[in-house]
Amino acid sequence: xxxxxxxxxxxxxxxxxxxxKAQNDDLIGLRxxxxxxxxxxxxxxxxxxxxxxxxxxxxxxxKAYPDLVKIxxxxxxxxxxxxxxxxxxxxxxxxxxxKPGFYIxxxxxxxxxxxxxxxxxxxxxxxxSFASVPFVKQLLQDKVFYITPTINPDAREDxxxxxxxxxxxRSGMMALDxxxxxxxxxxxxxxxxxxxxxxxxxxxxxxxxxxxxxxNPQRMIQVKQDEKGDYEMLGYEGLDNDxxxxxxxxxxxxxxxxxxxxxxxxxxxxxxxxxxYPGTLPETKNIKNFVMNHPNIAGAQSYHNYGGMFxxxxxxxxxxxxxxxxxAAVYDYFGKIGEKMNPGYKYFVIYKDxxxxxxxxxxxxxxGRGIFTFSTELLTSYKLFNKNTEEGRYQNNEFDExxxxxxxxxxxxxxxPFKHPQYGDIEIGGPKxxxxxxxxxxxxxxxxxxxxxxxILHASQMPKLEVLDLKQKPLAGGLTEITAxxxxxxxxxxxxxxxVKYKIERPDYITLKNANVVAGMLVENEDLNITKEQxxxxxxLEVTNISGLGNVxxxxxxxxxxxxxxxxVDSAKGGLASKTF
Amino acid sequence: xxxxxxxxGLLSVNQLANAQNAYQNHSQLTSxxxxxxxxxxxxxxxxxxxxxxxxxDIWALTIGKGNVSQKPAIxxxxxxxxxxxxxxxxxxxxxxxxxxxxxxxxxxxxxxxTFYIVPGVNPDAQEQYAAKVKFERSGNDTDTDxxxxxxxxxxxxxxxxxxxxxTQIRVEDPAGTYILSKDDPRVLIKADPAxxxxxxxxxxxxxxxxxxxxxxxxxxxxxxNIDKNTTYDYPIFVAGSGEYAASEPETRAILDFLYKNINIxxxxxxxxxxxxxxxxxxxxxxxxxxxxxxxxxxxxxxGELVSKLYNSKTGLKDxxxxxLTKGSLAQTIYYHYGRFxxxxxxxxxxxxxxxxxxxxxxxxKVPATENEDIKYLKWAEAQKIPNVFVNWQAVKHPDFADKxxxxxxxxxxxxxxxxxSFLAETADKHLKFLTxxxxxxxxxxxxxxxxxxxxxxxTRITVQVINKGLLPTSAEIGDKVRWAQKIxxxxxxxxxxxxxxxxxxxxxxxxxxxxxxxxxWLISGSGSVTIESGVPTAGSKTVSVNLK
Lengths: 581, 548
What we know:
The complex is a heterodimer of chains A (about 575) and B (about 550).
Chain A: H1 2-14, H2 19-27, H3 51-64, E1 69-76, E2 82-88, E3 101-106, H4 114-129, H5 134-142, E4 144-148, H6 153-161, E5 200-204, E6 210-212, E7 220-222, E8 231-236, H7 282-292, E9 297-305, E10 309-312, H8 325-341, E11 346-349, H9 350-354, H10 361-369, E12 372-378, H11 382-385, H12 398-406, E13 412-420, E14 424-431, H13 441-460, E15 465-475, E16 479-488, H14 497-502, E17 508-513, E18 516-525, E19 530-533, E20 540-543, E21 551-559, E22 566-571, E23 575-580
Parallel strand pairs in A: 3-4, 3-9, 9-12, 10-11
Antiparallel strand pairs in A: 1-2, 2-4, 5-8, 5-14, 6-7, 10-12, 13-14, 15-16, 16-21, 17-20, 17-22, 18-19, 18-21, 22-23
Helix pairs in contact in A: 3-4, 4-13, 8-13
Chain B: H1 2-10, H2 13-16, H3 26-39, E1 44-51, E2 57-63, E3 73-78, H4 85-100, H5 104-112, E4 114-118, H6 123-126, E5 168-172, E6 178-180, E7 188-190, E8 201-205, H7 249-260, E9 264-270, H8 297-314, H9 329-335, E10 340-344, H10 372-382, E11 389-395, E12 405-410, H11 423-439, E13 444-455, E14 458-467, E15 487-492, E16 498-501, E17 505-508, E18 516-524, E19 528-535, E20 539-546
Parallel strand pairs in B: 3-4, 3-9, 9-10
Antiparallel strand pairs in B: 1-2, 2-4, 5-8, 5-12, 6-7, 11-12, 13-14, 14-18, 15-17, 15-19, 16-18, 19-20
């Protein structure tokens, strides 16, 4: 603690922010450790935010911290909403877009709402902690974050404001014909009782294969093979709106924004949810343009729900060879620590451990752009009672028990009778739309923090380059041999091995200034003097990669003398570094 | 080149349409299409379906009568790979011939069919034909780092002999792998050590190695080739393919156009690919995997049929083998858009028969020339086409300071783009094929409509939906594709009528030629009901039936 306070005072002297206040909060015991005390932007993290609230939060944060947070729109959504992106860095140190960048988005699936709050929490925590947490200060001096709380704002609004279940809409709001009858979105769910939730329909039936759980009247269970049931399940609340003999067969959307990306994109008959071509959606197009225009993005995180998984690509088995061992080792490093940081979460590979995804966002980031990218399935039933269930992720009764014991039955709509025009006398009831997939309020802040911490670990290990040393050796004829060592202090390389193979991003440039360079070369083995000459632009040497905690050595032959050599390193993803000798 | 520019300057736009040997630039093409739509106003309209990266309109000409979007259609697409100018010219000539045809059978087609013609998908690239320095350019105006070295356009061609044409350079070098062909010493061929041949020349493109990477002219202007940028089997990170599939505005424009016109039954593409003179064979192993990479069985049979039709109607022979390439539009049209996709260069070098030697009795032997360049030069010579070959002439080349370097070779564009005057005949042949294909298109009809009284107020109605065309109502692959519609048969009720048995809406997959689908309903009530059946690719029919 003493050491902490000491460091704290040290950082105060360099800061324009009032440290006194934060310190006082600590001293009088009001500050809970790990949380910003007395934040400039007052937020509570036990509720969800609609589009107006997200917009106001983004604007408030930018206004409160003009030197740390800038807000811009990366473009309009399908229905014309601005897609806000917050650029968070210490704008007074360096050039924002030349620092290694970390991209965060949430809510690509509109019903998977809490990715937005985790993204917002991250932005808020970084800005509010800059002055008081030296690690965060250093982080924002070295790196830049681009945070887009929701990349599906239209359908998020639909999820929050209109009747839905936990799985709808998932899609965006562009109306499509799902049942092939030539009409779009004509048979959606119907909120029969007008309570804002789309729950389940059940009907008493002598031939049914379901019964009420004797221990919990809210819960329906399937009868055993040799047992007679007394209920049949009729799916989600709805009518046959178009009179075609089917119920709810053409709902809002339907397509999957996470099948709209330009890596191993496959059509709808192979990958359900795909559109005409990768980037059919304006939202996808906006993000692609943003990423293409920010070649400094070296790490990325996309938030989904549900299941408690830190996922890496590939989404499809065919792409497994593209995740070569060196790159997998980087993911493994984060994944293993992540499992410790967030109990109940597992580090998984999408195609192996979840299901196949062609044309997903993170494969485009990772394989299309060479960005180390995770996708996290937020929340797991482990969090309910801090233990793993032995049943499947949707079959267990822990949610029922949790609702009873900790939420006092708040999470379910109690079964009630309804006269259905097609099904006759039925009952409707079941989990509310904001249960099972979305965090209960009191758990949201904790999981936001744990997930943010994982993402900050990831971001903090983006490359940090340093010119370590410069050796001079006189050669005959008034020439001097100059050898420089460039070191990457972090785990993530300037180029993934996949990037190196396909030359996705340009090489790193290492330039010797204030010198009359006559030749330049890459040093492959300094001790054995094995080098490879670069004939073109010898002053600016090009290296394909500077690996994690690795170094490269470069050499110039210069004519004449200079008492002030400057070595400049310029890496798209690794940022800038320079040193004068 | 200067002479050509002079001619361009002298001729008015209208006269240019008649200029016999030069291909048109984008503004000339625009005027020509607009003139066409003005002249045939009721049967033709032209619209821009998007702009190229360089801001040029991509034009679609719609030919047909009345409600064109409600009729089954054939689309003709060209100029996707910008180096193929002949395709663009052929597509426009086909449109002109279709509209100008005096034949009743062609005019009758417009009652039931629609034709969409998109002659220039990649206008930026095609503009290079009219540029000061001509080179065969496939890519649009997007800035690309073709060799992915971090430098943009740092190693372009250089016109070393100042003739306005980018050809080749041969360098005498013991390390070279080329020799002069015995059949035509102007042409260089790879030395074959198995035949005891030893290389004598290096052969490169016309220009310097500006960035000293050992490669010549690997990164000049000319961005993304739209024919490498579409979604099926997209080639990753290769020169001209773009940064990701459908990255280019031209790609999205043509795909949006296709996907939104759900009435398109088949697409004919003019370009550097050929599946028409010889159809793609069915290979089951390619159709049973998760990602389908082979033509489905029923579609292969249709391909065979259409190939025969093409060969017989056009009478074209000795076609080049040009498999469809990765990321090409013609492949995406089949595998992703789910439509029949037919591709042909339209024109290729005809075989040149040796002149008849009358002093000999036996028929002359035709030398089996394998080399495409020699074959072309022979044909050009026989046809007396000028300026197809730049004779080798020595130049100073700094990358080969002490060596003998010469510029020369076949002029750009000529091999696949003959003088325009040669295309009129080709267009006539393709018009025959196109009209024959259109006449074989599917047609939905409703047959044997029966209405029986089952009991008072209860009627059984039976109807047969049949495809009376010679081709299926849609491609088999279309059965899988969400954006290709199913055949929809709907029973429409009114008043006190109700369905007692049967579905109101019935959807089914494609009907083969002559195939029948029967539907039956039990209906209570009185009056008459309507049955409508159809699919956008094969038309629709409606019948009214009285309840008994």
